[in-house]
Amino acid sequence: MTNRFLYFVLFFGLSLISAFGQKSGSQEERKTLALLQVELPSTTAKMLSLLPESGMTIYNTNEGIQGNVSYPAIGKGIYTFDGSGWIANKVHEMPALHPDEMEPYISNAVVLLAEGTFKTPSPKAEAGRYFHIRNISVLTSVFVSSVIDYGESQPKLIELKPKEGALMIYSDGTHWYRIN
Asked: Each residue of 10-43: pLDDT tens digit?
């Protein structure tokens, strides 16, 4: 009986030491946003089981999703419901540069839009960040909000026309500036 008690105390004590000796988190941890994964049959599907509301964003898992002129499909990817249909949004992070080639915490992103408006985030919160935005639609223009264009002093809405529209913007911490 005494040996069992001694083993129990020893085991329990070592478990506590082991638990307290571990780090609670590391720099390698990443926080992510998990979107609801749905197999949309088409970009105009209401899918009553979802109870979609304007602004609802999901990840579509159906590669063969059917689209139309008003709501083109991109296959698998992120879609946002606008009250009538699902708007395809495709955002990709650019590969990270070597740490010696860029300042810490600056990240760059490519945004591919089929329709709608890219609303720029707060320039103060995103100081030093670049976005490359491209219109991938062959029919509709897309827009980028709150950008100071060439020869301008005030932010405005910039139109990116089909087949030709692309621009890169940069935040200096105060404003977003068009740089190409």
From this structure: 444 444 444 444 444 555 555 566 778 889 999 8
Please check whether residue 50 is in contact with residue 56, taking contact to mean a CB–CB distance below 8 angstroms.
yes
Name the CA dihedral angle for 52, 41, 44, 37, rounded to a multiple of 10 degrees: 30
Please give the C-alpha separations between residue 5 and each of 2, 12, 32, 139, 180, in angstroms, as whole numbers: 5, 10, 45, 77, 74
Structure tokens at 7: 């083993």
- Please list the alpha-helical segments (H only) found in the chain: 2-21
Low-confidence ranges of the chain (pLDDT < 50): 5-24, 92-106
Q: Report domain extents, the chain.
A: 32-87, 94-178
Instruction: Encode burial over 90-122: b for 16+ CB neighbours within 10 A, e otherwise.
Output: beeeeeeeeeeeeeeeeebebbbbbbeebebee
Only one residue has tokens 């506590």, namely 16
Strand 77-81 to strand 86-93: parallel, antiparallel, or no bridges (unpaired)? Answer: antiparallel
Q: Is 155 exposed, middle or buried (0-12, 13-18, 19+ CB in 10 A)?
A: middle
pLDDT in tens, 71-87: 778 888 888 888 888 88
CA of 176: how far to CAs of 20, 83, 127, 133, in Å? 47, 30, 9, 13
